[in-house]
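If your schedule permits, I should be very grateful for your opinion on a structural question. Kindly check, if you would, that the fold set down in the tokens agrees with what the sequence suggests. Thank you for your consideration; the sequence and its tokens are set out here:
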Amino acid sequence: MLIGEGRDEVFFFDALCTDLGLADVQVEEYGGKGNLLNYLREFSVRPGHQSVVSLGITRDADTGMAQVFQSICTLLGNNRLPVPIAAGQIAAGSPRVGVFVLPDNQRDGMLEDLCLDAVQTDGAIACVNDFFQCVSRNTSRQPSPMAKARVHAWLASQDDPDLRLGEAAQRRWWPWTNPSFQPLIQFLQAL
């Protein structure tokens, strides 16, 4: 089982797992970082939880990668689930438990940062950067978080501009073979 913050993550991870041929991965959302505690608390009493071989938890680092990892580890320990020693690692137990802090287990950011890393060579990225510089210069506004705004702008440059990040993943717009995705792919395969 792999869990993410919201619906976009479900679509994104479903698409990535399908592309990797990981047919036995069930992807669910926990409804935002504030609901992870409730999800983990309810996990151990859900019907069929004993058949879950491994549990992968993903969460955006936002502005505190180390704090996010520690917070998740505390929640795991408080709910008597195995606690990995580092982000990206898998703790032995029943179920095995792994934590992946987006974008890459090393820096602050979010899923959108990972996706932007993978499309840096796309010609539209320079236009996206120019656009936000122009907006800032002419309005003094700066969207926050910028990564979400940049992903929306990049998606708007595609043939079907109405898609969200997860829907774009379902259409295979994110280049899974890009090295930026390798740590996440290795984590999913290890689960």
Remarks:
- The mean pLDDT is 95.
